[in-house]
Specification:
A hairpin with an 8-residue loop joins strand 14 (441-450) and strand 15 (459-467). The protein folds into three domains: 2-276, Aldolase class I (TIM Barrel), CATH 3.20.20.70; 323-382; 388-499, 2-Layer Sandwich (Double Stranded RNA Binding Domain), CATH 3.30.160.270. It has helices at residues 10-16, 24-37, 51-63, 77-86, 103-110, 114-129, 147-159, 176-189, 209-218, 240-249, 251-254, 265-276, 297-305, 333-342, 349-365, 371-382, 425-437, 482-499; strands at residues 2-3, 5-8, 41-45, 68-74, 92-100, 135-140, 164-169, 197-202, 223-226, 256-257, 388-397, 402-411, 414-423, 441-450, 459-467, 471-479. By secondary structure, the chain is α/β, with parallel strands linked by helices. Helices cover 42% and strands 22% of the residues. The longest helix has 18 residues, at 482-499. It has 18 helices and 16 strands. It has an eight-stranded parallel beta barrel, surrounded by nine helices. The chain has a three-stranded antiparallel sheet with strand order 11-12-13, with helices on one face. It has a three-stranded antiparallel sheet with strand order 14-15-16. The structure holds 3-methyl-2-oxobutanoic acid and zinc ion. The site of zinc ion (ZN) has 7 residues, from loops.
């Protein structure tokens, strides 16, 4: 079996598309989890795109070891210089440079002739080689290119020193058989192709990113690019967890193996969702909340007789452990710690105590604490060190939609209270918090969902707010009281702006 390299671009193609500015610490946390997951390459960002991206790539390059750290550039000297600088601290740096090769890109976007595109591509690879030995070249929109021209470009960039050749379906237009044929065509026609790694990079516009990537792998590609939960431009990128598990469950079909620790898949998915604020659909393959649930009577009867009747993956393999202990207000620290460890959380004594106290408060309001509650609790206790803490809320509604909220917070050690009216209780609370915090922000999105199914379930609120300096930030809050959850989420986002 040959090795399939897993190239994660959650922090570049995934983040770039969301209009969300993840801060350096958030990106670092995701990068560290990706190392635990066992990816081979982390594309940490596009340093020339903003000072924030530059800083994130620099920090990840310096702090995250044991994995290749990659930065994206256009085929421009200035981009490549900045990327090289950002990667200076990396143990294994890679520059990922490239240019559009389809008629649409060359004529409309770049306004360059095919000859100029070849020259620019070669010059970019040669320039990147001055800094690092590992240079990946992307032929943007390769699928819609003239494939004989694509071969010509790839011949030249390999001659110029490229070590990895990325052949993207940038607009998600291919079908699996066509994408597989393109990869075979490249492998059979590009000179010295055996010297380089061939990489597949697909987008999901027609819902075929995973299938196309697998077709490319079957045709001989030995690197696959994608994101966790499939987040990314428009309809998203290839979901890495789907490709990884397709290969794991059907090893014989592909003849390749990955270095992934599949038991970290669920924790990685959750972390990316929490940090980016992009929810995972319940029916999402591998990581959706329902991915391993059997609902209908016939299916339940089947799995009770033998799991294999309706299950192709044991949930434990992707890090969703079986639960044999029911957690409630009577549970002690030991039981809580045990379950959290099974769910992938390793806690220091001090953090365990904080989480245990939050657990007891929740257990007083809710009979049984489910895994989803524990995940929400872990996310919530992680933001407790915020500069702004919600102390109290009182809301009165007048029977119509108008409401008044009185909110007390502690900000930088000072306790203060203010009140405001609003169009409903959530609006009133947000207005009162705005008066207290004094930042000018625009609410881009507010989302409230129940963490589990019952009427006593935890409510989980997510807000996205835009600030003129910081850009878009996300805040999360949980509580069995949905107004409190909303206030916590809003305050959490404002606290991030204050600390930036
Ligand atoms: O989709 C694409 O073509 C890309 C390249 C920039 C690698 O993301
Ligand atoms: Zn892409």
């Amino acid at each position: 079996m040959s090795r399939l390299y897993i190239f994660d671009t959650t922090l570049r193609d995934g983040e770039q598309s969301l209009g969300i500015t993840l801060n350096v610490n958030e990106k670092l946390e995701i990068a560290r989890q990706l190392v635990k997951l066992g990816v081979d390459i982390i594309e940490a960002g596009f340093p020339a795109s903003s000072p924030g991206d530059m800083d994130s790539v620099k920090t990840i390059a310096r702090e995250v070891k044991g994995v290749i750290i990659c930065g994206l550039t256009r085929a421009k000297e200035h981009d490549i210089d900045l990327c090289a600088e950002a990667l200076r601290g990396a143990e294994q740096p890679r520059i990922h440079t490239g240019i559009g090769v389809s008629p649409q890109h060359m004529e409309k976007k770049l306004r360059l002739s095919p000859e100029q595109v070849v020259e620019t591509a070669v010059a970019a690879v040669k320039h990147a080689k001055k800094y690092v030995s590992d240079v990946e070249f992307f032929a943007e929109d390769a699928f819609r290119s003239d494939h004989s021209f694509l071969v010509k470009v790839l011949d030249k960039v390999i001659e110029a020193g490229a070590t990895v050749i990325n052949i993207p379906d940038t607009v998600g237009y291919a079908t699996p058989w066509e994408y597989g044929e393109m990869i075979s065509y490249v492998i059979n026609n590009v000179k010295n192709i055996e010297r380089v790694v061939v990489s597949v990079h697909c987008h999901n516009d027609l819902g075929m990113a995973t299938a196309n990537s697998l077709a490319g792998i079957k045709a001989g590609a030995c690197q696959v690019e994608g994101t966790i939960n499939g987040i990314g431009e428009r309809a998203g990128n290839t979901s890495l967890e789907e490709v990884i598990m397709a290969i794991y469950t059907q090893r014989g079909r592909y003849g390749v193996k990955t270095g992934i620790n599949t038991r970290e898949i669920s924790a990685t998915s959750r972390l990316v969702s929490q940090i980016t604020g992009v929810p995972v659909p319940v029916h999402k393959a591998i990581v959706g909340a329902n991915a391993f649930m059997h609902a209908s009577g016939i299916h339940q009867d089947g799995v009770l007789k033998d799991k294999q009747v309706y299950e192709i993956i044991e949930p434990e393999i992707v890090g969703v452990p079986k639960n044999i202990i029911a957690l409630s207000a009577r549970s002690g620290r030991h039981a809580l710690k045990h379950r959290l460890e099974e769910l992938g959380y390793k806690l220091e004594q001090e953090r365990l105590e904080t989480v245990y106290q939050a657990f007891l408060q929740l257990a007083d309001r809710k009979k049984e604490i489910l895994d989803q509650d524990l995940h929400a609790l872990m996310g919530d206790t992680a933001v407790k060190s915020s500069k702004i803490i919600l102390k109290n809320i009182a809301v009165t509604t007048t029977g119509t939609s108008m409401a008044t909220a009185t909110v007390t917070i502690n900000m930088d050690g000072n306790t203060c209270t203010d009140a405001a009216c609003g169009n409903g209780p959530v609006d009133a609370v947000f207005n009162a918090v705005n008066r207290l915090v004094g930042e000018k922000v625009y609410l881009e999105n507010y989302n409230l969902k129940s963490v589990s199914g019952s009427s006593e379930a935890l409510g989980e609120a997510t807000v996205k707010i835009r600030h003129s300096d910081t850009g878009v930030v996300i805040g999360r809050g949980i509580s069995t009281d949905i107004i409190e959850a909303s206030a916590k989420a809003y305050i959490n986002a404002l606290a991030k702006i204050k600390t930036n």
